[in-house]
Design brief:
heterodimer, A: 323 residues, mainly alpha, 2 strands, 76% helix, 1% strand, globular, B: 302 residues
Chain lengths: 323, 302
């Protein structure tokens, strides 16, 4: 198990290096190249010599790989995600307060998604081709086709202005624990993000359990006299756990993507809103910094999913060590 | 004796007349009523979006905000679906935005499938170290949440229509590549590829003669879903105000404008378009599902 975890760690590290390479290299393709920020600092009419001077002062004249190395050390050892020239602050300063809020939003929604989608998918598989199954599949299909922002808007309209009168937007203070001390205003954003997740994952769970239910060992279990309930929980559920953990790991990028949309709809001050604001300001370093941070969070989530997969499915540990 | 005569009798019409493959495929597709309805619906929407403006003349360039002018007006004989908060005719705007959303979605979808197919085939077919390297790069790219990446690209470069097609097209193929690589990996190991290779066929020949035709079902299905995804992502960008810029518009931007008016009770600014939009995406997904069945070899010759 330890060897498996270490191998996964090394793999994640290389993947992280590639992500860093992408976020580091993209500004080179910006119109104006890496010297583009100079025009923000010095004004649009600055002359060439001044721009070059500024470039030298900020280390822009160093070769690509030396700059990449300093970028790496800054990110890894100083949590320095860059400097926003538009807002004249470090990117970390701009976003650090919002990180916990986005993480709590995503994590709560992920947990709720698991607790709703997994039983839902199992019930659908156990009672396949019944009215309930068709209704759930149809709903998931429609939810999948609605743009997430429209779904959130309609939820907002229904549950905030129509019935229940839930608060339309959570308090914009940046206290990370607000979600747990005062949960009511957070109900709608979390519910929307959960709904988006459930739409995708319950369908997958249904398919996985259906696949397991036709296996020989399930038939054997039935033949030796297991009740349907026992078959479902002892055999089908445990064998479907592996694919579910995998798909949950793969859905983490979509989770953060959904969080971005939901933050924009509900004006939930978090990383997503900061990204959109920075994009509207054309503040490249902040957008890149947040993208990098969210990618690191995703990688971290994938790593946890991989380790969980090793725990629930012993075959993975053995197979990957032999190959 | 009786059973064998039955068999010959039953197989007679099929053995005499060989139905061409494409006819069988069209027959399977036509058998799926829902998919046929979806295709007809999509065709209708495309035709209406492009030809509608010729019959239903509206002004989609000049805002109409002067006092007493018609904005946020309920549907009437003059404006069939009313006007929006900028004084534009909503029905005309749906045509106009649809032209952009559909064109962008289809073009971007096609670009993604070309890149995804090439990348996936190369990785899956050559296997070994090539596969490992290409797939690790893909893992890295896929761990960047896609909407964040789109926002980054839009911030870094421009927001012109052409550029939006290019960025969605050039960044949307990573998931596709993974699916097609899985296919190529599987087919490469099957007997006919192995036999072909043993008889001295070149790698290029095997790719074009065996791997590509046998993974076409997945390629076509994935291409269809890519179009739906491209339309959805474009609408998300439009919602964030980072998509197609005024005076042009797309359905995402329109939905966002309409959703802002929802609490005022101006239903005509959002619900007609929302229903069309969702139906378009659902139809594309249904067509994708049906196409998968069409290319499923096991369903042929029944």
């Amino acid at each position: 198990m330890l060897a498996y975890v270490i191998r996964r760690l090394i793999q994640s590290f290389f993947v992280l290096l590639i992500v860093l390479l992408v976020t580091f290299t993209l500004p080179y393709f910006e119109p104006g190249g890496i010297l583009a920020p100079a025009y923000i600092v010095l004004g649009t009419h600055a002359n060439k010599a001044t721009i070059a001077q500024w470039g030298i002062q900020n280390g822009m004249n160093h070769p690509y790989f030396i700059r990449f190395w300093s970028y790496l050390t800054q990110v890894f050892f100083h949590f320095n995600l860059g400097h926003s020239y538009k807002q004249n602050m470090s990117v970390w300063e701009i976003i650090s307060l919002y990180i916990p809020r986005t993480i709590w939003l995503a994590l709560t929604a992920l947990l709720l998604t698991i607790f709703i989608a997994v039983p839902l998918g199992m019930v659908q598989a156990a009672r396949r081709n019944t009215t309930f199954d068709y209704a759930a599949t149809g709903t998931a299909f429609i939810l999948y086709a609605i743009p997430s922002f429209l779904l959130c808007m309609l939820m907002l309209q229904t549950f905030s202005f129509g019935i229940f009168h839930l608060p339309a937007q959570p308090p914009s203070g940046v206290s990370p624990w607000a979600m747990f001390t005062d949960p009511v205003p957070f109900v709608l954003p979390v519910a929307c993000l959960t709904l988006l997740g459930v739409a995708g994952i319950s369908r997958f769970m249904r398919g996985t359990v259906l696949e397991v239910l036709v296996q020989d060992y399930v038939r054997t279990a039935k033949a030796k006299g297991c009740s349907n309930r026992q078959v479902l929980f002892r055999h089908a559920f445990r064998n479907a756990l592996g694919p579910i953990v995998t798909i949950l790991g793969l859905s983490i990028p979509a989770l953060f993507g959904g969080a971005l949309i939901i933050e924009s709809v509900f004006n939930y001050s978090g990383l997503g809103i900061q990204t959109v604001n920075a994009a509207q300001l054309l503040d490249v370093p902040t957008v890149l910094g947040i993208t990098l941070l969210v990618s690191i969070l995703t990688l971290f989530g994938n790593l946890i999913a991989d380790i969980m997969l090793g725990i629930v499915n012993p075959r993975v540990r053995v197979e990957s060590s032999s190959s | 004796m009786s059973t064998s005569s039955e068999v010959t009798e039953r197989s007679k019409p099929e053995s005499n007349v060989i139905i061409p493959l494409w006819k069988q495929r069209i027959r399977i597709f036509l058998h799926n009523k829902l998919a046929v309805a979806s295709v007809l619906f999509l065709l209708c929407i495309i035709i209406i979006c492009f030809l509608g403006p010729l019959l239903y003349h509206t002004n989609q360039t000049d805002q109409n905000l002067a006092l007493g002018n018609p904005w946020n007006q309920a549907p009437s004989a003059r404006h069939w679906l009313g006007t929006d908060s900028n004084g534009f005719d909503v029905l005309g705007r749906i045509f106009y935005g649809g032209e952009y959303s559909l064109t962008l979605g289809i073009l971007a979808g096609f670009i993604t499938i070309i890149f995804g197919t090439i990348y996936g085939m190369v990785a899956g077919f050559f296997g070994g170290i090539v596969d490992t390297v290409l797939m690790r790069i893909l893992d890295a790219l896929l761990s960047i949440p896609y909407i964040f990446l789109l926002i980054t690209m839009v911030t870094l470069f421009s927001r012109s229509t052409l550029f939006l097609i290019l960025i969605i097209g050039l960044t949307g193929w990573w998931g596709n590549a993974r699916i097609i690589r899985g296919d190529a990996l599987l087919i490469r190991k099957l007997e006919y590829s192995q036999a072909s290779s043993a008889m001295g066929a070149s790698k290029l020949h095997i790719i074009f003669r065996h791997v590509y035709p046998n993974s076409i079902s997945n390629i076509v299905t994935v291409a269809t879903f890519s179009v739906a995804d491209a339309i959805l992502y474009l609408s998300a960008l439009g919602f964030l105000g980072l998509g197609i810029q005024p005076p042009q518009t797309d359905w995402g931007t329109m939905l966002q404008n309409g959703a802002n008016q929802i609490t005022n009770g101006y239903w005509w600014e959002i619900y007609p378009l929302a229903i069309i939009f969702v139906l378009v995406v659902v139809s594309i997904n249904y067509v994708g599902d049906a196409l998968r069945d069409v290319f499923e070899v096991r369903l042929l010759e029944r």
